[in-house]
What does this fold into?
Amino acid sequence: MAKIAFLGAGMMGQPMVRNFLQGGHAVTVYNRTPDKARALEAFGATVAATPRAAAAGADVIMSSLTNDDASRATWTGTDGALQADLKPGAFAIEVSTVSLTWVSELNELAMARGLHFLDCPVAGRPDVAESGQLKIFAGGRVEDVDALRPVLAAISKSVTHVGGVGKGITFKLIYNVMGAIHVAACAEGMFACEAAGIDIAVAAEGFSTGATGSPHVIRHARYMAENKHEDPVQFSGRMRIKDVDYGIRLIESVGAQSVIGHATKAVFAQMVEHAMGDHNDSELIDALRIAHGRNPA
Ligand SMILES: NC(=O)c1ccc[n+]([C@@H]2O[C@H](COP(=O)([O-])OP(=O)(O)OC[C@H]3O[C@@H](n4cnc5c(N)ncnc54)[C@H](OP(=O)(O)O)[C@@H]3O)[C@@H](O)[C@H]2O)c1
It folds into this structure.
């Protein structure tokens, strides 16, 4: 069983830590806001006051954090994980959705400290993380990925080795741009139906059972039709914009295009413009209603 340092006890981090503990691993958790880490003590986690203290002597150091800035601060700050008394040959794993630029830099920094680095971004919402059924897209040396499979099994249903370091996050960002396009198309389609006088429950049923019915459309059309505002936030409009932004930059850096990605970012930007950036991404339809002079649901 591994000694795991887990950095970031957010919506995704909390269930991942619980599943590592359930799998018999020893987990030390750091979170910027200490109460969220302390909530995991009841499940058997140890709480560290700094990333540096959490990472000391760990076999695996894993982070699940908002974005590049959060990851940089947690790994490289004065009390960051890379300042720790590290176990030689330990693994550093970034599971957050961050930019390829930052992953490449973090890999260099981790290697300089004798760590084996892997980018292992995850697909699946917090409820999927809770059930230990995330999909992992791994970037790193094949022998490192294989060495970690028994550990990653505690949080995931599949680990796809996409390629060398950086290829996991490369695939995940392109995947998330495509996913965001589905959600934006769903919101625009649902709103267009409503504006045209079609019952949106009928629209949701039609979009979900026809050729348009991707898993994203099925999930979000139902949420939009049911106006599920009271549900806890699982993935916000602001997070969608962050992912699409990193994704577009990556796609354009390799000489490809993301015309629809740019449009999708502009569609989600309406959530921020209408003070809904921290709401669930399904509420995009409300931002469209407001933008077009209608009342939100
Ligand atoms: N939610 C999803 O459905 C989902 C699915 C797949 C992947 N992801 C990715 O998983 C990662 C975590 O997402 P989440 O949903 O767990 O988000 P979250 O609940 O908002 O948690 C974000 C975490 O980052 C920390 N953080 C933010 N800014 C920081 C800073 N400047 N310095 C140090 N720590 C900072 C937060 O600490 P505090 O508690 O102190 O704020 C918290 O631990 C993101 O990269 C996201 O894109 C999310």
